[in-house]
Amino acid sequence: MANPIVETAITQHTLWQALTGNPPPLALPATPISVATLDSREVQPGALFVALAGSQTDGHRYIRNALANGAGTIICQPHGLAEINQDDLLIVNCTSGGRAIPALDTHRQEPSLSSRPTVYVVDQSVDALQRVGAFQRLHRTHPDLRVIGITGSVGKTTTKEMVGSVLSQRFTTHRNVGNLNSEEGLPLTLLGLTLEHERAVLEMGMYGLGEIRLLCNLARPHVGVVTNVGPVHLERLGTIENIAQAKAELVEALPSAEDGGVAILNWDDERVRAMAEMTKARIFTYGLTPTADIWADRIESSGMEGIRFRFHHRPAKGKPTSLYVKVPMLGRHSVHTALRAAAVGIVEGLTWQEIATGLQRTTGQLRLVVVSGINGCTVIDDTYNASPASTLAALNLLADLQNGMYHRRIAVLGDMRELGSYTEEGHKAVGIRAAAVTEVLVTVGELGRIIGEEALAVGYDPANLYMLTTADEVIDALHKLIQPKDLILIKGSRAVGMDHIAARITLTENAQVAKDSR
What we know:
CATH architecture of the largest domain: 3-Layer(aba) Sandwich
CATH class of the largest domain: Alpha Beta
Largest sheet: 9 strands, mixed
Number of helices: 16
Number of domains: 3
Number of strands: 22
CATH superfamily of the largest domain: Mur-like, catalytic domain
Strand content: 15-25%
């Protein structure tokens, strides 16, 4: 999948100052750089291409392609120079062993430079990208900009989109494109900040300890939202305690309460609740119990039309508030997402009318897709990623949607990866829930087989269970199994081809994006 291209508000002067630490020479015009990308295939005329040396592919191999596509600026490491004709370019040596200022007359205008692509040569491209992102965040933004950081094991992207929708009712708001939430993606997002932005909503992901701390150092959040702690990336981090520690880096980085810091924590998750002891920021909690600062009850699913519930807010001063709302999201787990967005709205001073309007207008890069499928079925395509928590939520959604409109509920569930020591337990938990809410269960892959075997262990009818190995086998089986008005959930790792399965049983011309994701 190609990395997205992002709009930026930087110029050549921004890059020069961030990467060399010196004022730009008069000979270098302040040419705007409208877009940036990490993928040479996404380059358009005038774009910034950042060549990263990744574990699977080296972006430096594609510098020539980026220039051919019209890149106006390149950030690369020294070995990238072997890919280009240096005579046609302005080379700016920003390496620790080189001269930061090239051989230019810094007191004289040279209009010819404006038509020459500029190549900034750096020690490490990802470090350089982070320096530029931090420079933009610190020096070229609104003086009253407030940043909302969002992390957690699942639900980050949906929360980011809904928080952005709420804040946009009053503030000019910036947010990540898609899930650009990593040490490479978040700096790209920062490049889009302008003097007009009053709020920034930034999703923060991680694969190891210290990564969220790094992202906070770049973004400088005032508000931190933690969704939950679960066994996602457990294979990398080893224990659930390490995952909680990694997520807690967000609240640890927040300013004090006196300086406007607010930690918005999930009261229903004991590991998140414990983070209240790890920050000097003000604590604001959300959940499904009256002990939280904002909580919800009377939850009712309206099928494909969304979810209804009642908010309650107990302010430190003043009268408690209750409000009935309906949001265009699927599944009861979406209530927590709406609570997070409402919590951010409250701490940022929005009215209940603004919050309710923002919740109802949520749009954006949402991942769960409901489409018409073969043989008259309906397909819930939730193949973006998979963890036990998100798969259980998807199965609960399947249960919510069985309201007489559908014939059978069929779950097609595949491997869930990077669970480490939780692999067997997580797949078994999914098997138990799948047995309770489906009429037909199809599993894919070796780990998927654990789901099926656990369903059998709790009494599932073997005649309705299909434990298969490959995506192609599943596609063949589904073409024979699916009947009119069946409701099909597809969930699991792309490593076993779940997205391929979804594509082969859907009628994509009738696709509609459901207002939900994990």
